[in-house]
Amino acid sequence: MLASRFSLSPQELWRSLATPNAPQIIDVRRREIYEQVPGLIPGSMWREPTDLPGWIGTLDRSRPIVITCKLGKELSQVIASELRGQGYNAAQLAGGQGAWTDAGLPLVDRAAADRLMPQRPSLWVTRRHPKIDRIACPWLIRRFIDPEARFVFVDPPYVADAATNFGAIPFDIAGVEISHVGETCSFDTLLTMFGLSDEPSLARLALIVRGADTARHDLAPEAGGLHAISLGLSALAGDDDHGLLRQGFAIYDGLFAWARFAADEKHNWPSKAA
Questions:
Q1: Looking at the predicted structure, is the pLDDT value of residue 40 above 60?
Q2: Residues 84, 17: contact at Cβ < 8 Å?
């Protein structure tokens, strides 16, 4: 996103998600409007439009910013202009959430987000030594649901108590809401819960994750590779679960980019010189 750009189309914003240059998406709709909508732009964070001085300091100056409101009118334009005047690389979403919805782009289920994450940044807890599902789920949460989410890893017997005592959301462990269901895994459960399961690239990624995490490599040709890379990274990481998470995010960013932009590309060494 270039600093000279004042507006970004919904399609341009969607293509930038889960990439190295993914912007901070700030939703500045008035509270009464925000609380009535059924869906949210993935990765967006709501901020009170009249309290810019109160939250401007929370923005990362090193990353681009996209401001969105209901229809891309005065709220997003004024705040984007104010941020640009203070040196931020800020743009507004052309047409706002209305244009995003009209374009048929994915939305996160707001009711599910509010029920599961009444306080944000949210805190999530799972078992130590993540490998596949416990890295895929945090990737999905950070990239599409709560970009400021925090994750902690504890021994399996303590996940339930950690969730209760610290107000954390438990995942990928037996007996909790976000876990395996039948032959699907926790990544599938999150996609369904937040209304993202119909997005084609995420659905394709889910099949790869499911195949790798449940030893069903026949589900997707890429599943065996993800299984091998994940176990190899875990073996190298030792007890550094958060370092492993950072490495794993790069893997899932790459897989998601492949599913969106490069899945039809073929690569072969030429058998004859041109």
A1: yes
A2: no
Give the separation between CA 87 and CA 62, rounded to whole angstroms: 11
**Alpha-carbon distance 79 to 90, whole Å?**
9
39-40/108-109 β-pairing: antiparallel
The SS3 of residue 171 is strand
**Residue ranges of the domains in the chain?**
7-105, 110-262
- Fold classification of 7-105 (topology level): Oxidized Rhodanese; domain 1 (3.40.250)
What SS3 class is residue 46?
strand
Q: Where are the beta strands (DSSP E) in 44-107?
A: 44-46, 65-68, 90-93
Q: Are strands 44-46 and 24-27 parallel, antiparallel or unpaired?
A: parallel
Q: What is the DSSP letter of 173?
A: S
Residues 108, 194 contacting (CB under 8 angstroms): yes
Say if CB 191 and CB 197 are below 8 A apart: yes
Residue 11: alpha-carbon gap to chain centroid: 17
- Its pTM surpasses 0.90: yes
The 10s digit of each residue's pLDDT in 60-107 is: 999 999 999 999 999 999 999 999 999 999 999 999 999 999 999 999
